[in-house]
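Ex. 9. Protein: sn-glycerol-3-phosphate transport system permease protein UgpE.
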Amino acid sequence: MAAGSIVGRSAGDRLILGAVILLAIVWLVPVVWVTALSFKPNAELMFSTASVLHPPYTLKNYTDILASSGVFRWLFNSAVVAAGTTAGTLVLSSLAGYGFARTEFPGRTLVFVLVLIGLAIPEQAVIIARHQIFSDLKMHNTYAALILPGLSIPFGVFLMTQYFKAIPRELDEAAMLDNASRFQIFWRVILPLTIPAQATLGIFTFLTAWNDYLWPLISATRPEMFTLTVGIASTQTNFAQSEGLGFLMAQAVFAGLPVFVVYLFFQKYIIRAVAGAAIR
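Predicted structure tokens for sn-glycerol-3-phosphate transport system permease protein UgpE:
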């Protein structure tokens, strides 16, 4: 029975591994295809995309992107907005989550319900009101206008609240016996235990802010304040899809490359975050 169980488990593990490899290939094929198209001359692609399988190849599509005078400014703007939004979200969501999970105050349940209702409201539903607010405050074309709307993420508050609730309250009580203040308990005892949740929320927030297109398109009207997504889109011609397919694919690769670099540097933390979230 033991030998049969081991054999069965081994066969099941192989099936799972095979399925994972197959899904990885399915996911990689479009990425490889887009990358290959980005190195093809646009003139070749006008006739057939099948020419991607053989030379000639060129770097002209990427040099055309770099030739744009504002591309590095747009890259810097995206980095500032994504980093600022991520840092602000982690701070506010952690404080709010701790407040909902570990403290008692009048109307706590009602306020938390209102936060959850925010999960059901799409960004497009409030975009006009948001534009009017920042317009009245004369804050458009500033980093503050690009960052502040991204800080209101109900998902982050919900995630951190649930994570804080899972931490035993005995830790708070033990710290209080040592005359620790409420902030010391939060900062030194409870917050370090939420690193997996912090990493998960940080990754989600960074990717969302980096790939955001709608709000930067509305708020940033000056080229020097464009984010990378808006700036690259502004360089496209009216006939880009028919005459500049390789250039379009190069834009897609260029915009996604910084995220890939971030993943390489923070791969260990990302895996730890996903594993920690799965265990939870």
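Check your answer against this statement. The CA atoms of residues 9 and 270 lie 29 Å apart.
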